[in-house]
Structure to design on (380 residues):
């Protein structure tokens, strides 16, 4: 298969220079590295991804990692899944993307499927129901804490417009329970327009 | 619905959701709840909350809550189809966009779009928290536990997994 990005060579991915080829992770290494960080990542894999990619394997500098993650964060979908694909393809094209993705997803999916089977069989047992109810409470608390943490910079900047967007999206999706797609088709362009106008005004 | 139909529904639902999950998998929880509990009646509110909690308990990316939903609807194949559908489309987009971005490094729009998406994803995350909080905090004891968990997470550096374990133990002890 011809990879359209292969022709534009970057220092990280070179077919001619043997030295840099040796530095780039092989497919198996990609798979194992992402499997490891995925299996260590309880409640989020990002911390482990940074540790493995930047500190342990030194496949990227911290700055490169931040840039790549910023891209993956603004794309839709699970951020860390995006990261695995972008990262894998940087080094090994499409096969690399697939290796990193499978490493990230396959081992935990097998674990989750086992849990799903156990839940289907024992989920209605009273003791397990009670236990899970407790875990649900704790999880809900974690989610609320995440929201507070995410809002801190916006509250600090006293960005009223951002607060309005937050409230509007929350009301539409959380209170009105409107479907996600139409809400985002309005909210995202509106928010982009707002940011654009504000920045235009800030720079005369 | 016959099994093939259900697999198709899972693929279509999560494939589309994948492209609209601004801010990651947890932001898509309100939409998952709407689809799985309200529209398709695949499961009860409690079962949905249980699955979100189980996904938090297990290692790996948060997106794996869709594996649990898919399994509940159509068995192991359903779990795999749901997972691939939730990850596949956005992975392809990520691959294409990352190649394009390399070409236009100095473009300003990515930063602009990114900061525009921040409040949107916070709003979605707040909706996620509320939906889970509503199904969790049905008694006042449960509501106190939700609040306590939020405060402990904000004020201490306790590992989230420990927080979940404490919640589970309290639940098992019959406090909630």
């Amino acid at each position: 298969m011809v990879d359209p990005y292969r022709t534009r060579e970057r220092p990280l991915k070179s077919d001619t220079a043997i030295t840099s080829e040796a530095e780039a992770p092989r497919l198996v290494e990609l798979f194992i590295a992402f499997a490891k960080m995925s299996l260590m990542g309880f409640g989020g894999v990002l911390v482990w991804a940074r540790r493995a990619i930047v500190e342990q394997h030194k496949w990227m500098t911290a700055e490169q990692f931040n840039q790549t993650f910023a891209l993956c964060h603004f794309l839709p979908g699970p951020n860390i899944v995006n990261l695995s694909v972008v990262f894998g393809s940087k080094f090994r094209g499409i096969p690399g993307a697939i290796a990193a993705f499978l490493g990230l997803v396959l081992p935990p999916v097998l674990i989750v499927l086992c849990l799903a089977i156990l839940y289907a069989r024992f989920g209605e047992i009273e003791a397990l129901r009670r236990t899970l109810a407790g875990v649900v409470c704790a999880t809900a608390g974690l989610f609320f804490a995440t929201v507070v943490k995410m809002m801190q910079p916006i509250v600090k900047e006293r960005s009223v417009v951002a607060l309005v967007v937050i409230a509007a999206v929350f009301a539409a999706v959380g209170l009105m329970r409107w479907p996600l797609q139409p809400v985002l088709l309005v909210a995202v362009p509106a928010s982009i327009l707002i940011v654009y106008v504000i920045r235009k005004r800030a720079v005369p | 619905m016959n099994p093939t139909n259900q697999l198709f529904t899972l693929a279509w639902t999560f494939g589309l959701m994948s492209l609209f999950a601004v801010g990651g998998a947890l932001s898509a929880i309100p939409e998952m709840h709407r689809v799985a509990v309200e529209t398709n009646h695949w499961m009860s509110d409690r079962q949905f909350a249980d699955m979100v909690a189980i996904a938090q308990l297990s290692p790996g990316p948060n997106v794996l809550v869709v594996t649990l939903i898919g399994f509940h609807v159509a068995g192991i194949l359903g779990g795999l189809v749901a997972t691939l559908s939730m990850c596949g489309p956005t992975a392809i987009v990520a691959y294409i966009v990352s190649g394009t971005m390399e070409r236009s490094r100095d473009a300003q729009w990515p930063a602009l779009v990114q900061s525009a998406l921040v409040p949107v994803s916070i709003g979605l995350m707040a909706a996620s928290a509320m939906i889970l909080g509503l199904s969790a905090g049905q008694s006042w004891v449960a509501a106190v536990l939700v609040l306590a968990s939020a405060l402990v997470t904000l004020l201490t550096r306790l590992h989230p997994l420990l927080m979940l374990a404490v919640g589970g133990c309290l639940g098992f002890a019959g406090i909630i």
Remarks:
- The radius of gyration of chain B is 18 Å.
- Residues 65 and 141 of chain B are 26 Å apart (CA to CA).
- Chain B touches chain A through 108 residues (CB under 8 Å).
- Chain B has seven helices and no strands.
